[in-house]
Task: inverse folding
């Protein structure tokens, strides 16, 4: 192997291929109103869940039975919050940097579908429609998040 040094032109070519001028940022405000509403709702939903599950878990699980279930599934809920944070980060980065948005949105959809099925399977017998707390609000918004991500996938315009 030869120990040839790179010339100034070769270094400039390599550095130029990673330049800022090639980077194009996408704006949410150029998308349709449906996309904007779904995108904002999905971000707020995931961030609210992460904050609530991470910092205020006692607010979600106040009653005796759900409190015992929470103690058994605390690690699962914490891991889901972390996975949700990673996926919403990828979702936003892929949208803003115009790369593979629909693929990442489909991954987010499959994650949310799995999480929704698990949540309704585990916690559905303990819901009381007469009482309102943060847990029931979160669990009833799970299907709305699935609809929001489908709206994002269908109304996404890659040209803007």
Result:
């Amino acid at each position: 192997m030869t120990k040839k040094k790179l010339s100034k032109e070769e270094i400039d070519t390599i550095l130029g291929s990673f330049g800022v001028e090639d980077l194009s940022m996408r704006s949410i405000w150029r998308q349709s109103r449906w996309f904007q509403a779904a995108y904002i709702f999905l971000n707020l939903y995931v961030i609210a869940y992460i904050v609530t599950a991470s910092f205020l878990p006692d607010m979600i699980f106040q009653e005796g039975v759900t409190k015992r279930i929470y103690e058994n599934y605390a690690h699962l809920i914490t891991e889901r919050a972390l996975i949700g944070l990673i996926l919403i980060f990828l979702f936003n980065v892929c949208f803003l940097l115009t790369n593979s948005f629909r693929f990442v949105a489909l991954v987010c959809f499959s994650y949310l579908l799995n999480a929704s099925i698990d949540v309704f399977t585990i916690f559905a017998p303990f819901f009381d429609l007469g009482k309102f707390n943060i847990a029931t609000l979160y669990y009833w918004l799970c299907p709305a998040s699935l609809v929001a991500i489908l709206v994002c996938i269908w109304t996404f315009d890659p040209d803007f």
